[in-house]
Amino acid sequence: MKEILKVNELVKIYGDNKNKYRALDKIELTVYEGEFIGVMGPSGSGKSTLLNMVSTIDKATEGEIVIDGENITLLKGDKLSDFRREKLGFIFQDFNLLDTLTVKENIALPLSLSKMNYKEINEKVKKITKKLGIYGLLNKYPYEISGGQKQRVAASRALINKPSLILADEPTGALDSKSSMELLETLENCNSKENATIMMVTHDALAASYCKRVIFIKDGRLYKEVYKKDSRKTFLKEILDTTSLLGGEGNEII
Ligand SMILES: Nc1ncnc2c1ncn2[C@@H]1O[C@H](COP(=O)(O)OP(=O)(O)O)[C@@H](O)[C@H]1O
Ligand SMILES: [Mg+2]
Question: Rounded to whole angstroms, what are the CA distances from 213 to 65, 66, 95, 240?
Fold first, then answer.
């Protein structure tokens, strides 16, 4: 199996000399092509920090991150932004759509930047939006569509150039339960039908149960990982059991 992501002894320390905070402490992780991996853990455990390092949004303090054979900890400037655009796809909680661009322009953005010709871009936009059920919305602006539709626009933008790795941080965080389920089914579908490799941070056990594997982080360290064996229902139970063992997130009262 091809390694898409390899994280070696990753350390992230925030703050200066007087006030240091170790948000990640020697994280080791390998993600293979075609995996749909969830990252869980109590609030403040380091989930977003890990995703931000892998996203190249923030720099690691120590350790190494290799994505599709490239050591991204060594990339800088244009090389880093080219890598990000070509190899990674992003889905955020707050959608991150540009309000002044139409749905179509938002989705085409990564391809426009890569100087692909107009006809080819149109074909790709058509294909992905038909699949995600938003083809009829192409000429609308973000303020004219619902939260669930916005997130499908963001997912289309993330998926359009078939990135090596799709990164999602709480993608269902701002959605109602029906839209959440639709998005998760879309991601599950892209994973199973097109072999997309997805890494999703979530604090929601139900969302995590759509993954094939879930890793749990506690205090910046890898605590446990669980694999989906048969049904989503038994996987959900296992995730909930681990979450309550971990503490935090809904268990503060106990
Ligand atoms: N930019 C930052 N500067 C200082 N501390 C930070 C910064 N970002 C996150 N932290 C701290 O690092 C820890 C992990 O944060 P984060 O990765 O956002 O957690 P999670 O996503 O699991 O809720 C928290 O204690 C948080 O306060
Ligand atoms: Mg977070």
Answer: 20, 20, 24, 14
